[in-house]
Design goal:
By secondary structure, the protein is mainly alpha-helical. It contains 18 helices and no strands. It is globular, with a radius of gyration of 21 Å.
Length: 450
């Protein structure tokens, strides 16, 4: 078959502001839409029941521990797609994507037993079991769907064509919100309905992305159907780069799931405050996740071209965008936090809950700034296949400076405020950022994987 590379099929990636915005904005919107899906779930459930909201946060984080572990491997195919694209080996773009599609299908055998035994595998406090178990079980039964979404998305993001992913995810969000309302309030399914809405949304996203991946243009230009065979070497390469990310995702989300559980065990009031604060933070953290994916996509293409100076320029520009975003975000979080509190109906009756919630919002901004700078630097390292070092550093800092101190406060009976945990977070992100930046300056990540 003769390859036909039309002008609209090939995206030219360089260090110009136009190129950066063209690639980054759709990826940021995609990250926002994904986080917004969880945010909407929690806002709707907060109107339904504060206890249900907390139960879903605990269960959702527990499910994410396992889903994001596999998504960490699936996402690494973006690196290979990006480097193939940068080196103009367009006929190879679909090879890593198919390997991760096969991994997604294999993951069904991983998720089903966990779903079946959810009554025995959970971290829910007793008062949240009724609301949380059904939600957890449904998401585990269909846990392969978000992994499949990540696998298919890699084909587009690695080329800098995140627009189709963005449109698909936004449509999925709208469907999820509609399904949430119908299932939770009209059919009275409660937290089970929230899970059902998420599953329907993920399933439709898979369908749309698969259809575009296999459309005529992509079949002709990138051999997306011809390269469907299992490739042992590429499968192993994706796992080699992806396993550290997989481990990092697993232990990162597990750490936050444990922190949420510990706080809920300390007191119901603290659980509500942290549930509110973490829901807001999850929404705004789209910027960290989006910048990480965007700079990884751009840098992997530039590594394929062997253009180090452009990578350095892009890195500086991403840090500039981060500072501007945080200044804008200070308006609602620092100056008018009551608007955010009203959305969640938080602190109307108890001033102590309100005061801690306001302080948590303001500290979230500092945490986001540091974590996003860390994620930007991590994205550059990821593009070069350097995943072991940042994984080790991030986990040592997170567990040593956040999880263990939180657990110690709980077991000594001194966990009375969520504000202390935010200071732990800020310290952890600061040290990780310093060590990541030192790795970036060393250039040990600057190698060509393909």
């Amino acid at each position: 078959m003769t390859e036909v590379y039309s002008k609209d099929q090939i995206v030219m990636i360089d260090s110009s502001f136009r190129s950066i915005f063209k690639i980054s904005i759709p990826i940021l919107l995609t990250a926002l839409s994904i986080n917004l899906m969880f945010f909407v779930d929690r806002v709707i459930l907060a109107a339904y029941s504060e206890q249900a909201m907390y139960a879903v946060i605990v269960s959702g984080n527990f499910v994410s521990v396992f889903a994001w572990m596999l998504m960490g491997v699936a996402n690494t195919s973006e690196v290979f797609v990006g480097q193939f694209n940068g080196s103009r080996q367009y006929d190879k773009l679909a090879i890593p994507v198919w390997q991760m599609i096969y991994m997604s299908i294999m993951s069904i055998g991983f998720f089903l037993p966990i779903a079946y035994f959810s009554e025995y595998i959970n971290i829910l406090p007793d008062y949240a079991l009724e609301d949380g178990l059904d939600y957890q079980k449904i998401l585990f039964y269909f846990g392969f769907l978000p992994v499949l979404v990540a696998s298919l998305s890699a084909f587009f993001i690695g080329q800098g064509k995140a627009g189709i992913v963005t449109a698909t995810v936004i449509a999925g969000n709208i469907i999820n919100a509609l399904m949430d309302y119908v299932f939770i309030f009209t059919l009275h399914y409660g937290t089970k309905g929230a899970a059902m809405g998420t599953v329907v949304s993920n399933g439709l996203q898979v369908l749309v992305l698969a259809c575009v991946f296999l459309n005529k243009k992509n079949r002709l230009s990138f051999k997306t159907l011809e390269n469907f065979s299992f490739n042992k070497s590429m499968f192993a390469s994706c796992f080699k780069v992806g396993i550290p990310l997989s481990i990092s995702n697993f232990f990162t989300i597990l750490s936050w799931a444990l922190v949420i559980s510990i706080i809920g065990q300390a007191s119901k009031e603290l659980g509500i405050i942290w549930g509110f604060a973490s829901a807001v933070y999850m929404l705004i953290s789209f910027f960290a996740e989006g910048l990480n994916k965007a700079i990884a996509a751009i840098t992997s293409n530039m590594i394929g071209k062997r253009d180090l100076e452009s990578i350095r320029l892009v890195y500086k520009r991403f840090l500039f965008f981060l500072v501007v975003f945080c200044l804008l975000l200070a308006i609602p979080l620092v100056f008018v936090p009551d608007i955010v509190l009203k959305i969640f109906n938080i602190g109307n009756d108890l001033s102590e809950i309100r005061d801690q919630s306001v302080a948590a919002l303001r500290l979230s901004l500092a945490a986001l700034l540091l974590e996003s700078a860390e994620y930007i630097t991590w994205g550059v390292l990821l593009a070069g296949g350097d995943t072991k070092y940042p994984t080790l550093v991030s986990q040592i800092c997170l567990w040593g400076l956040v999880v263990m101190p939180t657990a110690l406060l709980f077991y000594t009976g001194k966990l009375t405020s969520v504000i202390t945990i935010y200071f732990f977070m800020i310290l952890s992100f600061t040290i990780s950022l310093i060590l990541f930046y030192m790795r970036y300056k060393s250039l040990k990540w600057y190698k060509n994987l393909v």
